[in-house]
């Protein structure tokens, strides 16, 4: 029995037992459903073994949406707990676990896969490629992310969730203060999905560098592709730092090393340092692709080409360099001197300059444009003022002397939600609505979409703006309750109401999907928004080879030129197309990684050794495998083009 | 025959063996911590560059600039991270 005791939750509550039942029932329902409808073969052939960038993109998308709701439930529980003073809804330990998982899930398992979804789906289409550079590596990236996410998500029913915050600072995260396996989950799950992100980084850079259509020079790439390139360059730069930091943290917890302990020569501050060397560029990894999506949308719906293309590119490159120069602003109060704090203050404020350039470029793109107020455009227009407020409070936080006042208060919480929600989440929802017809062949309902936008914006303002005030009044973040005498009650109640409105908005998105599946017209063609870039030059649904003929590019908006200026997009003749084969290896390899991670969390060494051997066996098998892909014949291409409405031959 | 003989690679291989031997000597010879670590760091970086240029053939193709551009960018970021950390925790604390 002793063996099984460690899998028990150290801090159970009725809510957790209820979730166990729900998880059990869901798993049974999925298995029963797949068996009843005889979909196991379909699932394996079409999804689990796929190396198609579009299908992998869709799987990223679905995972991201699922995680959005998981993290959203955490958020609602936090706001409900803080809505009234001295609330007994959650206890301190439960609250700690919830804010920790909320942060990790939202950043690493929601925002990251969401941007990867768009990168995977859109970038090869935008540059006129047939797939990413390494299709099978792409599948491994996805499954590593997915297994990491699943490993992290089972933590709250098996063994207990991490509770040291999403930053997981040592010595709090060390064995002495975090005895349960929760922080092991943190270390291992993020490690596994981080490996996937690193591989995606290499994959995307290679794809963009090597596989652009003829004529597309670097300075003719669409803005989303540029932002993807820059973001992935940052990924390759900083994810190794996270990998190393997590490995050191894991060793501290499992093998009694002393990297981050406060005794025996360890240095706990080094964790915070390494974490933010990765962590600050990480937020730019999220926001730059979001900027790219906004650029595409604003240009399309203003019926103008993007204002200041070169300055857009330059400002992104400058941001990518500056983002690696500012990490210490996360711990101004840790005790270093005024000189280093001043240095990091100035670099932080400097980021506002290229970001400001981008804001003005979007405004000038809209200036005198013929603006169409569609749902994606509404999100983009809402983003500009809301994100600017987040940026301005960011500059306030950047002043290291003043930061002693703001540090660790709700002011900070309000600030980063104010950049991430209008910045990243709005961009993801805008991109989702914008690219939905390309992915699924019908549009999302505009009317429900507009309701969603307004509810989300109003809910966001109500939820987070009061935190600026309570923060300045001294409400600390991560405190599970406060007394009535502090006077924070009313403002926190407003926050809770705002969070509730946001929850309604997210529920409306689900309803919108359901409604649009039932009622949306299907005869929308392949270019419903009258867009400008190459991804809209393919048929809908996009055939697996993307373009029957590789497009010829002449400017930053070749598709627009082909519609309006008579540019010949497909000058060549049909030829057979070389495509990669599907493979079950990525899924199997990453399933073994899941077992490896799980046994590492609970220190079950025989299983660790077995699964490590399994992982290496997969690598060896792959090295000796001969897979030259396959060819799609001209007849088959013609047939597919006929079926998908391809009048372009 | 001379064209077929991979002189550059053989020389590189010998040189990398020498570098390994020098690094190994730190363990066997009695020297101060600072000198030992300096030797290790210097040999490690030369070794890495040697591998990149001689055995991974960086700079032998048209995309030379993108390979070296990436390498320079990474070195730049690594130096910033290391010296930034030293700045924070050693020189200003």
Automatic annotation (TrEMBL), chain A:
It is a multi-pass membrane protein. Its EC number is 1.10.3.-. The keyword Heme applies. It catalyses: 2 a quinol + O2 = 2 a quinone + 2 H2O; 4 Fe(II)-[cytochrome c] + O2 + 8 H(+)(in) = 4 Fe(III)-[cytochrome c] + 2 H2O + 4 H(+)(out). Its main location: membrane. Pathway: Energy metabolism; oxidative phosphorylation. GO terms for cellular component: plasma membrane; respiratory chain complex. Its cofactor is Cu cation; ferriheme a. Binds a copper B center. It is an enzyme of class 1 (oxidoreductase). It is found in: Cell membrane. One of its GO terms (molecular function) is cytochrome-c oxidase activity. Keywords: Cell membrane, Copper, Electron transport, Heme, Hydrogen ion transport, Ion transport, Iron, Membrane, Metal-binding, Oxidoreductase, Respiratory chain, Translocase, Transmembrane, Transmembrane helix, Transport. Residues 38-554 form the Cytochrome oxidase subunit I profile domain. GO terms for biological process: electron transport coupled proton transport; oxidative phosphorylation; respiratory electron transport chain. It holds the Pfam family COX1. The chain crosses the membrane at residues 15-37, 58-78, 98-119, 140-159, 185-208, 229-250, 270-294, 306-330, 342-364, 376-399, 419-436, 448-469, 489-514, 583-601. Catalyzes quinol oxidation with the concomitant reduction of oxygen to water. Belongs to the heme-copper respiratory oxidase family. NCBIfam families: QoxB. This is Quinol oxidase subunit 1.
Automatic annotation (TrEMBL), chain B:
The keyword Membrane applies. PANTHER family: CYTOCHROME BO(3) UBIQUINOL OXIDASE SUBUNIT 4 (PTHR36835). One of its GO terms (molecular function) is cytochrome bo3 ubiquinol oxidase activity. It is found in: Cell membrane. Its main location: membrane. The chain crosses the membrane at residues 12-29, 35-55, 67-89. Its EC number is 1.10.3.-. This is Quinol oxidase subunit 4. Keywords: Cell membrane, Membrane, Oxidoreductase, Transmembrane, Transmembrane helix. NCBIfam families: QoxD. It holds the Pfam family COX4_pro. It comes from the Bacteria. It is an enzyme of class 1 (oxidoreductase). Catalyzes quinol oxidation with the concomitant reduction of oxygen to water. InterPro entries: Cyt_c_oxidase_su4_prok, Cytochrome_c_oxidase_bac_sub4, QoxD. It catalyses: 2 a quinol + O2 = 2 a quinone + 2 H2O. GO terms for cellular component: cytochrome o ubiquinol oxidase complex; plasma membrane. The keyword Plastid does not apply. GO terms for biological process: aerobic electron transport chain; ATP synthesis coupled electron transport; electron transport coupled proton transport. Belongs to the cytochrome c oxidase bacterial subunit 4 family. It comes from Cytobacillus solani. It is a multi-pass membrane protein.
